[in-house]
Amino acid sequence: MDAPVIERDxxxxxxxxxxxxxxxxxxxxxxxxxxxxxALPSPYTEADGRWWLTEGAPATWARGGxxxxxxxxxxxxxxxxxxxxxxxxxRGQAEIGYWVAPWARRRGVATAATRALTAHALASGLSxxxxxxxxxxxxxxxxxxxxxxxxEGVRRAVSPQxxxxxxxxxxxxxxxxxxxxxxxxxxPDLPPGGLTDGVIxxxxxGPDDVDLMYRLHxxxxxxxxxxxxxxxTRAEIERRCRTAESSWLVGTAADLVVVDVTSGEAGxxxxxxxxxxxxxxxxxxxSMLPAWRGRGLLTRGVRLLVGWAFDTVGVARLWxxxxxxxxxxxxxxxxxxxxxxxxxxxxxxxxDGTRVDSLLYALLPTDRP
Length: 369
Hints:
By secondary structure, this protein is an alpha+beta fold. It folds into 2 domains: 170 residues, Gcn5-related N-acetyltransferase (GNAT) (Aminopeptidase), CATH 3.40.630; 173 residues, Gcn5-related N-acetyltransferase (GNAT) (Aminopeptidase), CATH 3.40.630.30. It is built from 11 helices and 16 strands.
């Protein structure tokens, strides 16, 4: 691949220069950069930076890849890096990667640079570009979507971690004949401030919600509907909260917290799991701490989520299941308009190898009261 200077969408892709060294060392020692780029030396020294400028980047070009400095078109200051490497010539395939310096974040730099180099690489003859993100790096996943990369799956334990262990990577792919992006999302973001009816509000689950989510998902009536019916570990809940935004971005689930608008306290959880995108069907799940029950708050939350699912997401059918003896959620579903469609015999695994029944409720847009 040639090494022309590429300038578009407010960024300049150019070869590295010796005077990039200071900014490169500072950026590569940034905690967020180190967190998601385990292959970087830590600490990142001037010797590491000089090696990249004099040996690493030239070697990438020699292999047929690309190693660009991303610079500000006006000042020419280093803003980050973007490159293409790991070519598989027989497949016309390569991998694209990037990082952005802390002083240049939240300005669209990564998206602009990825779009620019993607267009150049595909125009130069590549057929397929792969982009890999850490499961907790939602910002990078947003870049992939904005640059036209589509979610392809998860590579389990593919990345060695600094300090030991291995980590999954989420795979995003752009083909030469794919639209340039952004990729349409199954689950769009909530409006600013979340969803609210003035009494309660729904907001996305995040890393700070571990205590609440652990309490909710270890309630006996919630555990009874889990598969298998065993309480989750705290580590499992921590991972769920850290990767909740990623699940939302790839379109599998929208995890939400129910918040009392007056007090600001959180006491419930709702989830929309897009289990059948091809048919427009999604599953609704809900739970509330005991102290929050009997006040109609869960019903309000379910109504808000139902409205968003039908009117914004475009879901065609919602369904929910619950144990026959769990009467309270059945009342909530019926208040919102869900209809009982039947009983699914032996649907769920029960304790000690048994099977338990599940009541099936469903709601169509025309069913809403």
